[in-house]
Amino acid sequence: MVGNSFSPSGAATEQARPVTLERGRPVTDTELLWRADWIRLRTVELIAQAGLGHYSSTFSCAEIVATLYYHTLRLRPGEPRWPDRDRFLLGKGHVATGLWPVLADLGFYPKDLLKQFGKVGSPLNDHPNMRLAPGIDFSSGSLGHNLSVGTGMALAARLSRRDYRTFVLTGDGELQEGQVWEAAMAASHYKLGNLVAIVDANGFSGSGPTSQAMNIEPLPARFAAFGWLVREIDGHDVGTLRQTLDSLPDTNSKQPVCIVARTRKGHGVEFMEKQPQAWHLGLLTPEQQADVVAEITARMKLTEDGRSAPAGEGSTK
Amino acid sequence: MTTPANTPTKKMVDVFSDIDRDTALKANPSGYAITELAAGDDRILTLTADLSNVLAEFRKAFPDRYIELGIAETNSVSLAAGLACCGYVPYIFSMAPFGVLKCAEQLRTDVDYNHLPVRLVGRLSGLAMGYFGTSHYAVEDIAIARTMANTTVVAPADPNAALSLMRATAGLAGPVYIRIAEATEQVYDEVPEFGYGEWPRLREGGDITLAGHGMGAGLAVQAARQLAAAHGIEADVFDAAYLKPYDEAALVASVRRTGKVLTIEEHSEVGGLGSIVAETVARHKLAADLAQAALPDADLEVGVPAELYEYYGLTVAGVVTRALDLVKGKAA
């Protein structure tokens, strides 16, 4: 069953007759937690392959990405440009590494493509490029642009009377960019209840605590003042994430939605949580990587023990 | 530094207001053209950042296809990219200095790199808003736009050319920058037809090549007439309507024949048509003398545009003088 979060969807056979992954696919909290750790594990492997990467920012939004892709988004991996798909824009483009294994797993492209990650000519890089990688709805890298782009997509849905949703995942540091607030104004002005901004509020930017560099709080009040419907949640609590996304207002509603997801930069790896800044961009030594893999896989094993484990998944290869 | 004049003798023209259909093509060619194009293509939308009055006619005809974004240019460009991803063909009408210069990164990263069919119509380019101050100048816009690999850059010589170029570029799959000069003279009696990337030859001659875009094309035509009548000099005159891609073949053939090129443009002498010609001459190893009637790479004066054009030699007399210097071997 394609809707099962643990079943590789086998893109090759589905390309002829694209299968739709519907919104609200059944998945348990345990499965989502497992999936978030799976994303962390794959991220570690991909960064090792490339030689440098953004660990802690990817880890802070692993539960968010897992919940969106294995539960919430309406997608057609066999038809990446399907006009009625829900859009997902990675405003904080530097965490694309965590998205590549997900898109491969769902069948947007062959898993072999992951072996090309970071190499010259590869469609998969540190930041996403919509022209190269199937499943990427917009390119990113320059912070602050994607809420504007997503507003355009949400407006296009209104104009074309389609009911897709547009989700934009931003970092909290990204909200220091002025263009974000231009977009926030436009989205509420045009009453785009089909637009959802999710702020991965991990509290850190590239060089330190976000609000130490430039205070961005109180985020919920700021978005509310811009006319958005705001939900503030624990971004690692997959149950709350799932419920929040399940209870989004109808796409015809009149208020854009902002989910301020409070997260920890480096979540899921103890020494990164303690030193989130040091692991914004870096490369684990082989010894460190072994420790990280052990920590994550041990937790995944525990998760699996608490339920029926998926076959063939979760191993570190 | 001397000022252009103590007492302005020329007045600012109201370039902001749209007017009735009878005179719309002349007064507001891009607004006229987009209304015509939108009637035949449902995908076309227009956007402005507080420049709605240049789209009065369009808004009347297609109120649901106009998106006002307030004074937020960068948002308008990225938002247009989002619309373009979903099958629309957005035309952003913007003051050239803000649309191109302020949004250079959004144009590059969101529009050009993603090959999206977003069109930026840059009204009030060059010194058109001269009196308002240098913040309102757009004299670097072509230099910026033409380095964007997937973007087509056009600069109509007059209202008929604007209609022609907007029709010709409407169906392109990639981005387009349409640079509208306000101080143009009529060059075409009717809407010209020419191929993508071609420079229409406006006059044929073997003594000197004159190439201009926007108001520069009109100046070139008029200067060529005077050069022939008063000096017996026959100029090969081109409307450099396309700046990317440009008509390399026509340019090279003309330069081989004349050995002298004068470019005329309401743009900085750096990075625009003058640079295109110099790069082409160097790349083809042509022996040629080059000169520019353009704006200096320096702080610019502020004033009423018509007087600024005189001050900077962007007049028929100014072009004739430059051309004579070039022919006589005096040009720098």
Task: Summarize the helices and strands and which ones pair or pack.
The complex is a heterodimer of chains A (317) and B (332).
Chain A (H helix, E strand, L loop, with lengths): L10 H4 L14 H22 L4 H6 L1 H11 L14 E4 L9 H7 L39 H15 L5 E6 L6 H12 L5 E7 L2 E2 L2 E2 H4 L5 H7 L3 E6 L3 H9 L10 E6 L7 H5 L11 H20 L12
Parallel strand pairs in A: 1-2, 2-3, 3-7, 6-7
Antiparallel strand pairs in A: 4-5
Chain B lengths: L20 H7 L1 H12 L3 E5 L7 H6 L4 E3 L4 H13 L3 E7 H7 L1 H9 L6 E5 L17 H5 L6 E3 L4 H11 L6 E4 L21 E3 L4 E5 L2 H17 L3 E5 L2 E3 L3 H11 L1 E9 L4 H11 L5 E7 L9 H7 L4 H12 L5
Parallel strand pairs in B: 1-2, 1-3, 3-4, 4-6, 5-6, 8-9, 8-11, 11-12
Antiparallel strand pairs in B: 5-10, 7-9
Give a description of the structure.
The complex is a heterodimer of chains A (317) and B (332). With 317 residues, chain A is of the alpha/beta class. Chain A has one domain: 3-Layer(aba) Sandwich (Rossmann fold). Chain A has helices at 11-14, 29-50, 55-60, 62-72, 100-106, 146-160, 178-189, 210-213, 219-225, 238-246, 270-274, 286-305; strands at 87-90, 166-171, 195-201, 204-205, 208-209, 229-234, 257-262. Chain A has a 5-stranded parallel beta sheet with strand order 1-2-3-7-6, with helices on both faces. Chain A has a two-stranded antiparallel sheet with strand order 4-5. In chain A, strand 6, helix 10 and strand 7 form a beta-alpha-beta unit. In chain A, helix 2 crosses helix 4 (62-72), helix 4 (62-72) packs across helix 10 (238-246) and helix 6 packs parallel to helix 7 (178-189). The longest helix of chain A is centred in the N-terminal third of the chain and has 22 residues, at 29-50. Chain B has 332 residues and is an alpha/beta fold. Chain B has 2 domains: 21-179, Thiamin diphosphate (ThDP)-binding fold, Pyr/PP domains (Rossmann fold), CATH 3.40.50.970; 201-327, Rossmann fold, CATH 3.40.50.920. Chain B has helices at 21-27, 29-40, 56-61, 73-85, 96-102, 104-112, 141-145, 159-169, 215-231, 248-258, 273-283, 305-311, 316-327, and strands at residues 44-48, 66-68, 89-95, 119-123, 152-154, 176-179, 201-203, 208-212, 235-239, 242-244, 260-268, 289-295. Chain B has a 7-stranded mixed beta sheet with strand order 2-1-3-4-6-5-10, with helices on both faces. In chain B, strands 7-9-8-11-12 form a 5-stranded mixed beta sheet, sandwiched between helices. In chain B, strand 11, helix 11 (273-283) and strand 12 form a beta-alpha-beta unit. Chain B is globular and about 55 Å long. Mean pLDDT of chain B is 93; it is low at 1-7. Chain A binds chain B through residues 83, 130-131, 137-139, 141-142, 145-146, 148-157, 159-160, 178-179, 182-183, 185-186, 189-190, and chain B through 45, 64-65, 67, 69-70, 72, 74-75, 77-88, 105-106, 109-110, 113-115.
